[in-house]
Amino acid sequence: MRVARSLLLASMLAGGALLAVPARAAPAQPRVVSVMETGGTLQPGEYLWAPEGVPPGKLAIVADLRRERLYVYRGGVEIGRTLLIYGADHKPTPTGSFPILEKNRDHVSNLYNAPMPYMLRLTWDGIAIHGSGEDVDGRYATHGCIGVPDEFAALLFAQVRKGDTVLVTRDWMPEVYGTEGVRFAAK
After folding, report:
1. Which of 101, 106, 116, 179 stands 20 to 30 A from 127 (CA)?
2. What is the pLDDT of residues 128-174, one digit of tens each?
3. CB 129 within 8 A of CB 55
4. Phi and psi at residue 2, in whole multiples of 5°?
5. Contact criterion met (CB below 8 Å) for 167 and 60
């Protein structure tokens, strides 16, 4: 019935003209034309960053919670990749498409009094991408934020602008990235 209520509301707002409005739009998918070769699996603290020779273009960021990877694309060409940490079970990282609302190089969390260097705010209730030390790996979790190695966070911070899009998802482009980073339950 959720869709029916949305259609009724849209009809009332449009002065009686019926407009089809979905209950919730699917997150925007960045266009990808080229990805980086890793030469192996990234280890904690490692990252790839190669924007040289890539023409100017719109920046898009994808955080894949299943693979624990963050991908950066400029004009559809992958220019960066790293491991990430994300929200613990009791404070999960939300999925969806988010614009970067604010940038703050030296932010400190007002909730946890914790440094969040190179903070890129995704929501006004405290979710952000930020530096989380050098050895970012799956042993750690955040309070819903996306943590990346500090050095990578600095490089990303220098490239992004307010309004650039971040897609937070699970299992991003499995046909391209395969099972890199995917953890399988022991049998």
Report:
1. 179
2. 999 987 767 666 677 889 999 999 999 999 999 999 999 999 999 99
3. no
4. -60, -45
5. yes
112: its two tokens: 């946890």
Which residue shows structure tokens 């849209």? 10
Nearest by Cα to 53 from 80, 81, 79, 82: 79
Q: Taking Cα atoms as reference points, which of 82, 24, 60 lies closest to residue 167?
A: 60
Strand order in the sheet with 102-108: 102-108, 115-121, 128-131, 146-148
Supply the pTM of this predicted model: 0.80
C-alpha to C-alpha distances, 96 to 35, 78, 122, nearest whole angstrom: 22, 20, 10
SS3 83: strand
Name the one residue in this structure whose structure tokens are 């009094």: 113
CA–CA gap between residue 25 and residue 60 (Å, rounded): 19
φ/ψ bin of 126: left (φ > 0), alpha (ψ from -120 to 50), beta (otherwise): left
